[in-house]
User: Fold this.
Amino acid sequence: MPNIYRLSIAHINDTHSNFEPSPVHFSLTAQQHTYKLEAHSGGYARLGYQIEQARQQAAAQQTPFLFLHGGDSFQGTLYFREFKGAANAHLLNLLKPDAMVIGNHEIDAGNSPVQAFLNRIDFPILAGNMDLSQEDRQKTGRLYGHPMLYDFDDSTETAKVLIKPFYDTKLAIIGITLDQMRLIARPDPDTHFVNAIETTERTIQRLHQQGIHHIIVLSHLGLDQDRELAAKVDGISLIVGGHSHTLQGELSDIGLSNIPYGETINSTPILHAGKYAETVGLAEICFDQQGKVVKLLGNNYFMLDNKITVTTKQGTVADSHTSAALIEQLFSHPCIKDAQHDEEIHSVIHTQYRPSLDAIENQILTHIPRDFVHTRLPSKHFPHGSEIAPWVSRSMYKAAKNIEPNIDFALHNAGGVRQSLNKGQLSLADVVGRILPFELPLTLYQIQGKYVIEALESSINSATNNGIMGTGAGSFPYPYGLRYFYDGKQIKGQRITQVEIYKQDQWQTLDPKKLYLGVSSSYTAAGKEGYEALLLAHWQQSITDQTLPEAFIDFVSQYGHLINGLLLANVHYISHRD
Assistant:
């Protein structure tokens, strides 16, 4: 019996169909000046190379190896819009994961796309708190009993567990996903998600009874809920997570996060690897006989080519000498790898899938005069939050006004916008593949002012976890035609201190008793992510011939030349901390 059990792990999460390298930005300082470096990192071909290198190195050292995906492979780019998950399955098979946990975006369109995905993949999907015991056994798209799905076992009230041989013992992998799934996704009505913490606790107790103590939780809960899980449940050796797009690693010296890689709560390290296949997490881990991690070495790694643009804070291109020095400095960072790639994966992407996207890439909608940042929550640097979400709300308002001239406001959630906008040409592909990849219809509704106020406060509370278990920062509301003032230091129910509506060319106080006409995406109008109060609308009506990305495309095509002057500061936000 060994004293130390070694394991090599590669992990990714929230890849969202980003098969090609994604734009990333770094900040470096030279001669007391700060410069922005724009590069392209990751993509599946580069991931494939790094993962295979780690796999071969582990084999040479006779160390067990795992490659794990923390969920949300679906959505995000034109690849998903065009191929509906078939390309995701094909390319993930080439990466050869040992397991993937189901994410909320896998269930955006119900169970049928998940079944199609399961039918194509060569690796198991873990969904240990997904209860299919009540699923209709005769329906199309049934998931119950699928051999590639490790769901909830209602007979024992535990997760079905992936067991791997591990030296003289066994290693268990439990897949746990969001138990608030119905709030942020669209599972079939007969599909339920049971409590994540309780399921994990019962499953670990059962594993301990079987003599298994080396236990990995593959999680799609987000970092905050992973921390809670680790704090409340003893016996988890390691959590490999996703959902919150958290980039761990000491990266402040290149202008990024400084969140510890392998942050440890209650003796359980937690690993996350950012988003969009930009980085790969690589770790070497040592466990003791009881499954406790006694040593963890690793980090998240960018995979960059040498096509890097260096600009000053003002946006001017740096001189060649400064650029060369800063690029060399960037590549000397321990978390930067080069752009070596897997030739087979690269060929599959560019011969089987990329040609279908090229035509859409060439349709230019407008010119963007400067970079516009999408950040889900207000912050010190962006006190009003996203610079793009207000455009999206205004585009919904304009689209709805063609149908209902008396429309009062539009309301959209931050998570419905996926990326920032870079200066330059804006193509159709940028909109439908990157910024607004969810083809959601618009919904008109008539609602009392008091429920608008309730929806605003509830969604902000949900986004900031202010006194509640939230669903994530994607809940944060961005209106058009409304503006609100939120003070998180007030008691729950009184944090929205003022709401105004723009009528008759002036801002007026919203009347809690009066009926107003609003428009949102069908997702938001369905009460997801803290917007339950919208379900109390007097009526709702779907705009079936106008989707969210179509509204935005029409808007920027007409008003793109004025885009710099279109933003309104409708978000007034004070600290959300109690």
